[in-house]
Write a structure and sequence with these properties.
Two copies of one chain form a homodimer.
Chain A lengths: L9 H5 L6 H8 L23 H10 L14 E5 L3 E2 L5 E2 L2 E8 L9 E5 L26 E2 L4 E2 L4 E5 L14 E2 L4 E2 L9 H14 L7 E5 L1 H12 L6 E5 L7 H16 L15 H15 L2 H7 L19 H13 L5 H13 L2 H5 L2 H6 L4 E7 L7 H13 L4 E6 L7 H4 L1 H16 L8
Parallel strand pairs in A: 5-8, 5-11, 6-7, 11-12, 12-13, 13-14
Antiparallel strand pairs in A: 1-4, 2-3, 4-8, 9-10
Helix pairs in contact in A: 4-5, 6-7, 6-10, 7-9
Amino acid sequence: MTSSYQPMGSRWYHNIPVISSLQWLRQHHQHHTNTGHSTRQQPHEPIRPNEGISHDYQVRQRQQEQIATSDLVTRQTMIWDTPLPLDSGQQLAPVTLAYETYGRLNEQRDNAILLLHAFSGDAHAAGYHHPSDRKPGWWDEMVGPGRPFDTNRYFLICSNVIGSCCGSTGPSSTNPATGKPYGAQFPVITIADMVRAQVRLIDKLGINQLMAVAGGSMGGFQALEWATAYPERVRGAILLATTAQSSPQTVAWNAIGRRAIMSDPRWRQGDYYDHEPPADGQAIARMVGHLTYVSSLSIDAKFGRLFHQHEGPQFTLEPEFEVERYLEYKGTSFNKRFDPNSYLYLTRAMDYWDLPARYGSLDAAFSRSQARFLVLSFSSDWLYPPSESQRIVDALCRVNRPVEYAELPSNAGHDAFLVNHHVQSPFIEQFLNSLTVKELTLGA
Amino acid sequence: MTSSYQPMGSRWYHNIPVISSLQWLRQHHQHHTNTGHSTRQQPHEPIRPNEGISHDYQVRQRQQEQIATSDLVTRQTMIWDTPLPLDSGQQLAPVTLAYETYGRLNEQRDNAILLLHAFSGDAHAAGYHHPSDRKPGWWDEMVGPGRPFDTNRYFLICSNVIGSCCGSTGPSSTNPATGKPYGAQFPVITIADMVRAQVRLIDKLGINQLMAVAGGSMGGFQALEWATAYPERVRGAILLATTAQSSPQTVAWNAIGRRAIMSDPRWRQGDYYDHEPPADGQAIARMVGHLTYVSSLSIDAKFGRLFHQHEGPQFTLEPEFEVERYLEYKGTSFNKRFDPNSYLYLTRAMDYWDLPARYGSLDAAFSRSQARFLVLSFSSDWLYPPSESQRIVDALCRVNRPVEYAELPSNAGHDAFLVNHHVQSPFIEQFLNSLTVKELTLGA
């Protein structure tokens, strides 16, 4: 049940009650549909302090369960030999982009929604790849029949980004010039470069205008890029826990992560693919990152000052608080699914994200847009705080663009958009509903 | 002028205007006194965005200036062969404690104030050690004639802590059992252990009751320990930017720092004193720490999104934003003065800090105290936020102990107590004044 983004909030824990396998199956697969998704009923219980760790281990130790065939989805790829021009002046070729789709494109081809993932996410937003998968895609509770991104009504596309290690061209891909992985020879990319590749995908899918683009965090960067650089192709933009300009503090956190990876002797200037990867460096980077994704409140609620297996201190330098052990687990487990070089390139792309600098001002950027906007921020998100969403909203209002905004109450920190579905869902559902009424959309 | 705690706020930069050496001398040494301190007039100019970096480099590159003899202070040490009992059940012997004093103990021996430093501080609170010193002690603007801790009136003692690498017994000290540095064989210590050693120092100085104990951050932990474990020996307690219980989030930040150091192959299980130290690990730990000491606001104001020597991105993975380069500098320069093993031991002592757990509740802890309290928090401190000071104040009120509290406006984050002197000084001056009127002090 763990989202691939490793959320730490309510969903992550309280959906795994201590029940028998049979009960679990019944609860999770009782409503199969013919759209490739179940309507799993997952109760939202209040978080109980310190139940996190034990459930975490339960998840890991739980016997693999059979996933219904109707829940299976497949990762797809598109490949282009035509070089992709990059902001740096370099070109990238060939370019592979991984994506998944859910639901069906209608005849008018006007019900497509592009889902854009955050830093460590991937194209696998919903469903299961294999019957033996331990968990579904990272936004599974948001995508499916009857869910906010309703696969009975909309055609969902979730696109990966270039620079990633999850099926698209990135530093671990083969450099055609050498026949070896790019490593640190991969060109430095930007959010605009990522979207430039996605435009090719949307073209290829035969979609002229997206009903909506939607994303949180770095996914929000891409959604903003879509709405301003390709205004005529976006009817609605859903921006969650995001910003129009990476703050110096987020640049600094990213710099620490990069420093940790590049200081690991096993990084070898990025050329480690034939050796052990810089796992310590990336674990440290992820530990830092993870702490910035959650709030002090959520850590208090989940771990408090509990010691692992003891009542008090054991007078050791080794991890002995539950919160330490949890963070350690988060750091090391991340190495199983993420390439340290992608960590470097994607964080750098985020650092460069600066929409006002691109067009002279945020007002100028949004003057280009033709979309309606839904902006949601979360009260305890200190990485992309509500004030940064408010800046987006203020600029949209100044240039008279339609926007709805809510600061949602949440203790989950930045990860809220990945875990506090019940809070954000009504806003997203309503916004998408309104987009289907074409008369309401405005031109520039 | 950089405090040894590496503050990032106003003091650190704007006290180094671009002036000639002669002007500098005149400004900084015009009012010599006979107490070993000058009354340097340092104007408090508003911070200008992005002036930080250039001033930083000015400091480093400035020609060393002559320090007046009257400004010189000496680090002293006391050594005990009697084993010091530790909370872990172990004993430490011999024990050396480094300290400095400023001003004079009066005949009644009732004007002594014990200054307690933060995590990476030392006994050198004020003045200069050598004529060639580039900067004075870490709280120089707070300690001296006419300053809040007025050396014309009070006898100031600044004590180092055991576990430190700044003159007191710590992991880099010789283990008498082996004749080699302790390294990771040093016993794990607590705040109570640190204070237990300080009690010996105060005994030896012939001081029965301290007029006050004062400290910020980990210095506040020690002040709280003094006021509750040795209630009859403390008349007043000044607690700045501190907490009665290390939050799970601060434990987590510390865990990341330790992970970085212990993952550095040069750490060698703590036994690196004959080799290169784990400098990369400690640099990363310090970068993380430093970011937690400052606020997003102060980073914005000082660095914004400025690139170093360029107008825009150079499309490189290397540090190119000013904030990245600054953080890098903070990390690497820290290695010149701090022992990575001390980083491990002192952060662990901070993790264990839990006054309510010790006595059953915070109310029970403060029921023991006989001191008057001054509690100051800073609005932008998110590491030890005002809410944690408020918890101390609430408990003191519940058990009817005299306390004054202010949440002071500051953009400097946790470091405010080291840099926003003008904000905290009036409260401290007034509080110390009131302590000299003995009738006002209350018994338990």
